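re: ur question from earlier - yeah i can do the single chain one, its not a big deal. heres the input i used so u can compare w yours
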Amino acid sequence: MPLAKALELAQEYDLDLVEVAANARPPVCKLMDYGKFKYESAMKAREARKNQAHTVIKEMKLRPKIDPHDYDTKKGHVVRFLKQGDKVKITIMFRGREQSRPELGYRLLQRLAEDVQDLGFVESNPKQDGRNMIMVLGPHKKKTEAMAEARQAQEARKAEAKANPGKSQNPAEAEAPSEEPAEA
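and the output i got, formated as tokens:
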């Protein structure tokens, strides 16, 4: 349709002539309310930003001679970070004479990588950086997937709570015997 006729039609219906695909031959235009179009596109952009995940690198610091319980605690944090879809930078800090034994730190990093291999992979191999040895672990699943799983789990808990409103959320409270006054 010629441009003049399209503009005339837009004026007749009290709408705007909006160019939708400028690169097409001939260019594609639509008759629409431009303000409404602009608002809807802004809402779509906002929704896309809300669902967008930011890449975060969490850091965990260890020492070469770490206690087994402390190691398990730190490993638990690394597991939690990987489940959330975050990258984890593990730093082994060497002090004094420990710097002459970098293989201790290397073995510790390899052990940690093996312990969490089902959740993440070694993104950058251990390398010495002055007094520290650094390794980066990346998650197998993306941040958006982890966020979606967490959202689904939360919705399932809410639905279960609505379905069973009389039940206590804490199982210890449900098993506790009721206290009745003793007769004299």
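The mean pLDDT is 84. not sure if urs matches, ping me
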